[in-house]
Design a protein that fits this description.
Layout lengths: L8 H16 L17 E2 L6 E2 L7 E5 H6 L15 E4 L8 E4 L15 E5 L2 E3 L12 E8 L13 E7 L7 E9 L3 E13 L2 E12 L3 E3 L5 E2 L2 E15 L2 E14 L5 E4 L30 E2 L6 E16 L3 E19 L8 E20 L5 E22 L4 H7 L21 E22 L5 E23 L4 E28 L2 E12 L20 E14 L4 E13 L2 E8 L2 E8 L2 E14 L4 E16 L20 E13 L3 E12 L2 E2 L9 E2 L2 E12 L4 E8 L7 E7 L4 E6 L4 E9 L1
Parallel strand pairs: 6-9, 13-18
Antiparallel strand pairs: 1-2, 3-8, 4-5, 6-7, 8-9, 10-11, 10-41, 11-12, 12-15, 13-14, 15-16, 16-19, 17-40, 19-20, 20-21, 21-22, 22-23, 23-24, 24-25, 25-26, 26-27, 27-28, 28-31, 29-30, 31-32, 32-33, 33-34, 34-37, 35-36, 37-38, 38-41, 39-40
């Protein structure tokens, strides 16, 4: 399980460069009257402001300044610099699948609820369509690892990721940023903040991101996978009285793009026998193969398109009393998606798919928290949410062969519909219309306490009771030019779930610089219904809830007189009834299965190190180790036994880092160079651990050079991502029952220049 760094000229350059920098430190002067210290990181992981080093849970935090330095522009990009966080993009980056420490759900359907909670300004976003958003004007991001079974709105087994927007200020301030890069990319971002009236401050920020696609369609000559996204947010902070304040958040975003296409990978030879594309030239069952193996060039007859619209508002009201504070957060979110794609990724018109989905959610949280400085602190509260999913999907099979099939017997098979497939081509053209509606309600009561029973020891205890209700209606039908009839007649069902989860922890403060902790905690994720295309009523049966028990120990330390932080955690998970998404073959068709595995186990380790070596040089490193096993699972439809397999998106080793060096330029300003990198060990993308649908270990390297003027108003930077233009597999779907697999690869090398003016 060791990490082996392959030598190449880029790493040699980096080693030489930073060797020179380290030698330069022998003559660097340090101001003894102002000792160097890392900036303190304040987090709200436990619903109150605390120093990161005083919180006895594993948290990776990014300040707004760090996000800018790393040029993280999307919510999913934080994974590259977070140990044991993996985010997989599916269906043209419209439904991210988020895994923390191997815990997640790889379900691409619009009604899926992930095992990791996503929060924007303390509002839980339920719909997967709402989880890919642009990072702009962000104050902080916090990644909480492990089950969140007490404090957080939607009880989760994997963890939580919090995005906190920059708040309004009294003083007039703001910034404008413009960026240009390859693939004709152009980004614009701006914000302005200040006092509107005596007791009202406001802040408005916006972002726009456009770029040409880096995929080419050889059939039409068009670029595919372009970017055209905008978002806006307005915050209003109103000090209503001495003890009452309110924060109103209104926001919206839109993405309109040609979809990132799948890469076609044949799985049979010309005789129709199974074929390994790594060792031979393979085709699909119609005799097509991608001739040049260029992962960014395609032969597609049906070009995809994605439209995403998100809008919402939240109101946070805080009432301060002498000994406690009351917080109310009310929120409404609406997400819409229209998406179409060529699901055979070939010039043959075999399978085209269409999705038209909408999610509406309302949530209300009320918390009462203590304010006194006594040894006993507490938070109690309640949470309610309601969501509605309306899903209308269409699947067009073998449209390109309808005329040929109809020509054989146009009377018996109007429009080419041939239910028994008895024709010279051996195919069955058909069009399926699926309507799916799901409603859900969640209720919870929770309490979290901390008792400092000595100067060094603290006891933490939390409990949460959750009830969730799921109700669904569904109908699936063949729809032809002259007739229609149901495949799955109208079906309606509902099911309730409940759970009592909690946490028990102990903390030991050796001194101001060392905190040791141990936690036992549980998490719960309710069951639900499979939102995929199904061909029988039995496949609509609900799946059960999953539960996870976590045992974790760790320490947080401040070293070298405040110039370094080292945080370490080790954990073991007992994962019961894990919800698992797989593909199975039924009658030659790929069928999506979502049900419960028996048991899984996860053991892991994390370490994060921040070091301010000198006034000019700072380093940030992260290490994640995972040992995962699907202890017991027999797939309900295909009968395959996956027991003993590794969990998907769970590399045994992941490593990340950032190194930054700054030069003062007298009265001009500061010049800085920076490199950041991440390493991922071998990872499986499907539960059957297919080596054909896996990614071998690889490194990604990025770099940035920036200049900040002496008055800090101007910032000019040049950047490059994926320096080595590494090709790597990011997503894969098993369509081998049809003779092919669908692959999506990562982003190639990109580079550009950003100019920022602050006032």
């Amino acid at each position: 399980m060791g990490i082996r760094i392959k030598g190449n000229r880029y790493k040699g350059i980096y080693a030489a460069l930073f060797g020179v920098i380290l030698m330069d430190q022998s003559v660097a002067e340090v101001n003894e009257t102002t000792p160097m210290r890392l900036e303190e990181i304040i987090v709200t992981a436990q619903k109150r402001q605390e120093s990161l080093q005083d919180v006895g849970i594993a948290v990776t935090a990014f300040s707004g300044d760090e996000i800018k330095k790393l040029k993280l522009t999307s919510s999913v990009e934080i994974a590259a610099q977070t140990p044991n966080l993996n985010i997989n993009q599916a269906f043209a980056n419209s439904v991210p699948q988020i895994f923390i420490r191997g815990v997640g759900l790889k379900d691409p359907n619009a009604n899926a609820t992930g095992a990791v909670g996503i929060y924007v300004d303390d509002v839980n976003l339920v719909s997967p369509m709402a989880l890919t958003f642009q990072l702009f004007d962000i104050e902080r991001v916090e990644v909480l690892k492990g089950p969140q079974g007490t404090l957080y709105g939607r009880n989760t087994t994997g963890g939580a990721v919090k995005f906190i927007s920059t708040k309004p200020t009294e003083e007039l301030e703001g910034y404008l940023r413009a960026g240009f890069g390859n693939y004709s990319s152009f980004q614009f971002e701006g914000a302005v903040s200040g006092r509107l009236t005596e007791n009202l401050n406001g802040r408005i920020s916006a972002v726009s991101n456009k770029a040409d696609g880096f995929h080419d369609n050889r059939v039409t000559g068009h670029d595919l996978g372009d970017t055209d996204a905008q978002a806006i947010r307005a915050l209003f902070d109103w000090q209503i009285s001495d003890n009452v304040d309110a924060l109103l958040n209104i926001h919206g975003g839109r993405t309109d793009t040609s979809s990132v296409p799948f890469e076609h990978s044949g799985r049979v030879d010309l005789a129709g026998s199974p074929c390994d594309p790594r060792a031979a030239t393979c085709f699909d069952f119609l005799g097509y193969r991608d001739s040049d193996n260029d992962i960014y060039d395609h032969d597609i007859d049906f070009e995809g398109k994605t439209e995403l619209d998100n809008a919402g508002a939240s109101l946070e009201v805080n009432l301060d009393f002498t000994d406690f504070q009351v917080t109310s957060i009310s929120a409404y979110e609406n997400s819409k998606r229209k998406h179409r794609e060529d699901a055979d990724a070939s010039p043959n018109n075999v399978l085209n798919t269409y999705w038209d989905d909408e999610n509406k959610q309302f949530s209300q949280e009320i918390r009462i928290s203590s304010k006194s400085e006594s040894a006993f602190s507490w938070i109690v509260g309640g949470f309610y949410s309601k969501e509605e999913n309306d899903i209308s999907n269409q699947y067009d099979f073998f449209r390109g062969f309808r005329e040929l099939v109809e020509a054989e017997d146009p009377i018996a098979f109007p429009g080419g519909f041939d239910p028994d497939g008895v024709n010279s081509l051996g195919v069955t053209p058909f069009y399926v219309d699926q309507w799916f509606s799901q409603e859900g309600e969640s209720y919870a009561l929770f309490a979290h306490t901390q008792w400092d029973f000595s100067d060094r020891f603290s006891l933490i205890a939390g409990i949460r009771y959750t009830e969730e209700e799921r109700e669904m209606e569904q109908i699936t039908a063949f729809v032809e030019p002259t007739f229609a009839f149901p495949i799955v007649p109208f079906y309606s069902d509902d099911k309730d779930f409940d759970n009592l989860s909690g946490k028990l922890g102990i903390e030991f403060k050796l001194n101001e610089d060392w905190l040791f902790y141990g936690n036992v905690s549980t998490g719960f994720k309710s069951g639900g219904y499979n939102g995929a295309l199904v061909f029988d009523t039995a496949s609509l049966k609900p799946f059960d809830e999953e539960t996870l028990t976590s045992y974790e120990i760790g320490f947080k330390s401040t070293l070298l007189g405040g110039r370094a932080r080292l945080n370490v955690a080790a954990f073991h998970y007992k994962y019961e009834d894990m919800q698992l998404f797989t593909f199975a073959s039924v009658g030659g068709l790929p069928v999506q299965v979502l049900d419960n595995a028996g048991e899984s186990s996860i053991t892991g380790f994390e370490a994060e190190l921040d070091v301010l070596l000198t006034e000019r040089l700072d380093i940030r490193l992260g290490l994640g180790l995972l040992d995962t096993e699907l202890d017991k699972y027999d797939t309900a439809i295909s009968g395959g036994d996956l027991s003993g397999n590794e969990l998907v998106l769970s590399p045994e080793v992941s490593f990340n880092g950032r190194v930054r060096y700054e030069w003062p330029l007298n009265e001009l300003g500061t010049l800085a160079i920076q490199t950041d990198f991440n390493y991922q060990d071998d990872v499986f993308l499907t539960p059957d651990n297919s080596t054909l649908l896996s990614q071998e270990s690889f490194w990604l390297w990025n770099a940035r050079v920036s200049f900040v003027s002496i008055d800090e108003r101007w910032n000019i930077s040049g950047w490059i991502k994926n320096i080595e233009d590494k090709e790597y597999l990011a997503e894969a779907y098993d369509f081998s029952s049809n003779g092919w697999d669908l692959l999506i690869h990562g982003t190639p090398q990109t580079y550009g220049i950003d100019v920022t003016f602050s006032f």
